[in-house]
Structure to design on (146 residues):
């Protein structure tokens, strides 16, 4: 069983530079065709200060962590036994090309189902820009198969 005393554990924050090329690549990968995600002029004409991040981009911010999926190490989880259960996003602000985004994640719940055959770890992350503005929140559930 996963260690439920880790509920509330906050991982070390880290900061990622949001580069224009990274946003354009992400837009291509998800099939986004709106020019505001690749063309600075189109973005400004649409009312943005520069190229904004497409929806769900926050998930890729986590890939900038110096530790790959630190929850696996903390809870001694075997990567071969995990599944991505769910993902939710909130957008209180906008992430832009040129921003420095700091991510802070914590474990907000650990519970099990089916007599412990499946365990669930709920993580919440917040994303603030270089001006201290909250620009995003994400919640994901990792499923661990015993």
């Amino acid at each position: 069983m996963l260690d439920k005393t880790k509920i509330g554990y906050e991982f070390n924050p880290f900061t990622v530079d949001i580069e224009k090329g990274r946003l354009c690549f992400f837009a291509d990968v998800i099939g986004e065709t709106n020019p505001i995600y690749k063309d600075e002029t189109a973005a400004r004409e649409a009312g943005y200060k520069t190229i904004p991040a497409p929806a769900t981009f926050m998930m890729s911010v986590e890939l900038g962590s110096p530790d790959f999926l630190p929850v696996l190490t903390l809870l001694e989880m075997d990567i071969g036994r995990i599944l991505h259960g769910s993902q939710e996003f909130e957008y209180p602000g906008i992430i832009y090309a040129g921003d420095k985004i700091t991510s802070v994640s914590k474990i907000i719940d650990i519970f099990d189902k089916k007599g412990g055959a499946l365990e669930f770890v709920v993580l919440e992350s917040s994303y603030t820009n270089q001006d201290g503005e909250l620009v995003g929140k994400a919640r994901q559930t990792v499923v661990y198969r015993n």
Notes: Strands lie at 14-17, 82-90, 100-113, 118-128, 134-145.
